[in-house]
Specification:
Number of strands: 2
Strand order of the largest sheet: 1-2
Oligomer: single chain
Largest sheet: 2 strands, antiparallel
Strand content: under 5%
Distance between the termini: 97 Å
Number of helices: 6
Mean pLDDT: 77
Radius of gyration: 27 Å
Shape: flat
Helix content: 40-55%
Order of helices and strands: EEHHHHHH
Structural class: mainly alpha
Length: about 140
């Protein structure tokens, strides 16, 4: 009476790239993250080889334009500046200047960082920015 023992992992397959466990009924050879990375690499290589804009990329790979633009805003892909002419329609969120990567243009980034190049409060602003309570202010007004 030989019993066949099956391991828990017999019902799974592995992603060919990252070796992540995949369910047996999963139809692809790669996990969703690896599929996304492969697509991204193909898009990046296509942009490097061709003078295209985000609409051309979306049409070539049957992607939504919003997905391509989100990769640009995240800084994952960047278009080449072709002789002073921008090849896409991404604009700075603050001033509207055409940009080829990210959300803000370099001058707006410098402005937002402040004169000292740091984000946040300066030391002399700390006293002015302390939290105040209305009840204490009312008590002080009544005493006067």
């Amino acid at each position: 009476m030989a019993t066949q023992t099956r391991s828990f992992f017999d019902h799974y397959r592995y992603c060919k790239d990252c070796k992540t466990l995949l369910p047996e009924e999963y139809e692809f050879e790669f996990c969703p993250q690896c599929i996304e990375q492969r697509l991204f690499r193909e898009v990046r290589d296509y942009i490097r080889k061709n003078n295209v804009n985000e609409y051309d990329v979306a049409e070539e790979f049957q992607l939504p334009v919003a997905r391509v633009k989100s990769w640009i805003r995240e800084g994952r892909i960047q278009y080449q500046d072709q002789g002073g002419k921008m090849t896409l329609g991404i604009h700075c969120a603050r001033c509207g200047e055409p940009i080829n990567v990210g959300t803000f243009c370099p001058s707006c980034l410098r402005f937002m960082k402040g004169p000292k190049g740091t984000l946040g409060f300066q030391k002399d602003d700390i006293e002015a920015s302390k939290m105040r309570f209305l009840d204490e202010k009312r008590k002080e007004d009544k005493k006067k």
